[in-house]
Write a structure and sequence with these properties.
Elements: H1 6-12, H2 18-23, E1 37-51, E2 56-69, E3 74-82, E4 86-94, E5 100-101, E6 107-113, E7 116-130, E8 136-145, E9 153-155, E10 162-172, E11 175-182, E12 190-196, E13 201-211, E14 229-239, E15 242-245, H3 250-261, H4 272-279, H5 285-299, E16 301-302, H6 317-323, E17 325-326, H7 328-341, E18 345-351, E19 370-377, E20 380-384, E21 404-409, E22 412-417, E23 427-437, E24 440-449, H8 451-463, H9 466-478, E25 485-491, E26 501-509, E27 513-516, E28 519-522, E29 543-544, E30 549-558, E31 563-567, E32 572-575, E33 580-588, E34 591-600, E35 604-605, H10 610-625, E36 628-632
Parallel strand pairs: 1-10, 16-17, 23-30
Antiparallel strand pairs: 1-2, 2-8, 3-7, 4-5, 4-8, 6-7, 9-14, 10-13, 11-14, 12-13, 14-15, 18-19, 18-21, 19-20, 21-22, 23-24, 24-26, 25-26, 27-28, 28-36, 29-35, 30-34, 31-36, 32-33, 33-34
Helix pairs in contact: 5-7, 6-7
């Protein structure tokens, strides 16, 4: 589970403060990088060669980045990554005449959080020092992959705007490699293929031009869904008329995964005292499974970063328990060990979150970035993701719903999918009973949160100091509207992950009522979800919300004695197969009833729907800008 910052949390909420920040936001095309420099040319050549010592294929990567500095007196750092399966053999800087130029201090090392390495990926930062505007410098690197499985995906976009990008693969006849292309069409990527007789190899050349810098847009899916790239599938090699398989099929991928998990030495008997403590007093099987699952969620700190190609071997269950932290693989392994110790059929399960565009028809280490645990109970499968804090048993985070899973099954495996839950899982209900008193809108309200919204709210409540929780809840209720005063609030049990989370509150807001002569002007909806959610039609990607959306708002306003309705805003019903907005005002027995329903069924707005969406938001804003008008009788 990603460790979200508070701002990102708000972006994900629906009826919460995020309604103002996330929903009232123009979903723009990514801002261009500062044009202090750009790549005139970036070329990468991957050549498969034979390592005589280890009798295995290797990959040699040659890169050339020719950079122009557009501002004087600047230092630009170019990053190159490596890990335990690769090494940077050589790096040098050349001036515009092709002569070597001395670089400053090159920094290489691991990424870490609070001193804990969360990935075995390492990085070297090479400084390119530009004295004058218009100066060009080139960085050449030579990198070696000792294990060809770990060359997985190659992207065209760089962190700088790029005039010309060229990617070359040299594949000898004895090597079987499939180059699988993704997202080429929108970027006009050209490709050629020719035979190099002197090398007895095929050369595949890809080229693209005028690429913007790699960047993230608001509510953008993972890069593999959007940016052009190539998956490199090293399937087999043939030497001395003997073919040796690498990763040619899903069977090969599972066999390799299984060989790693077989190396993990758990000592389950050492966990027996813990198990007795966790399931003490639990009678039924379901209650015991829940107790184990929730204990791992609550007591093991997730510290690892799931993305990346390295680190496929889980830590032992005992080590994860002893250190009280682990990555997704370690947490899944501890969950499995405890469940098996309790007598249940539990198995490790590989999965790629919806950040990835692939499935298990592709035999590559790039197809998954996560691990969970699957347990069988009375013929029913439960998928347990202990990294998702406060998710109940049988509930599944949006990022894994519908995703293919690979479940261990001895020498075989089971392919399945995570269930897809409807948008009712993420139901958010806001209710208010309001009246006008002392020139302000006052009353009682409630919020009911489920699914992603509930899970994230509980996560932040548990990570917020107790003395600051009240302030946090008030911010949730008020949508950070400075005029909305929360007079008191009460929440449901913050430790109950199996029920919707409820907030009851009393409020007043003077800014929602204005008096002019004999008339009262009332702004009945203070939250105004999606008010400024116009989509930039020049966006690179479609819009993908963090969850399927189902927001319901019900506000009842008592008409003060001596007043009658002069004007109600127009009702709205905008129905589309991807989304719908309904807004209704109704007078009934001395009250004004305001009902709003917002639905984005699968949480996705495709690019072809941007125009229609914007038309809908414009109609919605006309209602938001209008007001209820009461006049004295």
């Amino acid at each position: 589970m990603k460790i979200l910052h508070f701002y990102l949390l708000l972006l994900c909420f629906s009826f919460l403060p995020g309604a103002i920040i996330g929903q009232n936001k123009t979903y723009r095309q990514a801002s261009p990088a500062s044009l202090s420099s750009m790549l005139l040319e970036s070329s990468i050549t991957y050549e498969f060669v034979w390592d005589k010592h280890y009798q295995l294929p290797q990959v040699i990567e040659l890169t050339l980045d020719r950079v122009i500095g557009l501002e004087p007196q600047q230092t630009l750092y170019r990053a190159k990554f490596y890990d335990q399966h690769s090494r940077i053999v050589k790096a040098e800087c050349l001036n515009s005449d092709g002569q070597l130029q001395k670089m400053g201090t090159v920094l290489c090392g691991n990424h870490s959080i609070q001193g804990i390495f969360y990935s075995d990926a390492q990085i070297c930062r090479y400084p390119l020092e530009f004295k004058n505007a218009g100066q060009t410098l080139s960085l050449k690197t030579l990198k070696q992959y000792n294990d060809v499985k770990y060359l997985t995906s190659v992207y065209f976009h760089e962190d700088l705007p790029t005039s010309t990008k060229k990617i070359v693969f040299i594949i000898p006849e004895w090597m079987e490699v499939e180059l699988k292309e993704f997202n080429f069409e929108p970027f006009a990527v050209s490709k050629t293929k020719k035979y190099l007789a002197h090398r007895k190899a095929w050369q595949h050349t890809y080229e693209a031009h005028n690429l913007t810098a790699l960047s993230r847009e608001h509510f953008m899916p993972g890069n593999s869904h959007v940016y052009p790239h190539i998956l490199v599938l090293a399937k087999s090699f043939t030497k001395n008329q003997q073919r040796q398989t690498l990763l040619a099929s899903t069977d090969d991928l599972y066999a390799w995964y299984s060989s790693l998990t077989d190396q993990v030495k758990n000592h389950p008997q050492n966990l027996r005292p813990l198990l007795r403590h966790v399931i003490e007093g639990k009678q039924g099987d379901l209650d015991k499974i829940k107790a184990i699952y929730y204990w791992v969620q609550d007591n093991i700190r997730y510290i690892a970063f799931e993305d990346g190609i390295a680190g496929f071997k889980p830590q032992s269950a005992n080590k994860v328990f002893d250190q009280k932290y682990g990555d997704c693989k370690g947490m899944a392994n501890l969950t499995k060990a405890l469940l098996k110790l309790a007598g249940y059929d539990a198995r490790l399960t590989w999965i790629g979150t919806n950040h990835l565009a692939y499935d298990y028809s592709i035999p590559s280490l790039a197809v998954d970035n996560h691990m969970v645990c699957t347990v069988w109970l009375k013929g029913k499968r439960y998928i347990l993701d202990a990294t998702e804090k406060f998710n109940a048993l049988g509930d599944y985070a949006e990022r894994i719903q519908g995703r293919p899973i690979l479940i261990e099954n001895g020498d075989k495996y089971i392919l399945d999918k995570v269930p897809v839950l409807s948008n009712t899982r993420n139901l958010v209900i806001g209710t208010q009973k309001a009246f006008i008193k002392d020139g302000a809108l006052q009353g009682k309200g409630s919020m009911e949160l489920s699914g992603e919204n509930k899970q994230m709210l509980l996560y932040y409540l548990h990570t917020t100091p107790t003395q600051r929780r009240s302030r946090f809840i008030k911010g949730v209720i008020s949508s950070r509207n400075p005029n909305f005063e929360v007079l008191s609030s009460q929440t449901s049990n913050v430790n109950n992950r199996e029920q919707p989370f409820e907030i009851q509150y009393r409020f007043q807001n003077k800014a929602q009522v204005n008096e002019f002569g004999n008339e009262l002007y009332i702004d009945i909806d203070y939250a105004k979800e999606y008010k400024a959610s116009i989509i930039d039609t020049n966006r690179l990607s479609y819009v993908k919300f963090p969850e399927k959306v189902l927001n319901l708002t019900n506000i009842t306003l008592n008409i003060p004695k001596g007043y009658k309705i002069k004007h109600l805003p127009t009702n709205m019903e905008f129905m589309h197969h991807k989304f719908s907005f309904r807004v209704k005002f109704e007078q009934k027995q001395g009250k004004i009833l305001y009902v709003k329903e917002i639905v984005v069924g699968d949480g996705i707005i495709p690019k072809e729907c941007f125009k229609t969406w914007n038309e809908c938001i414009i109609q919605l804003n006309k209602i938001y800008e209008d007001q209820v008008v009461l006049v004295k009788e």
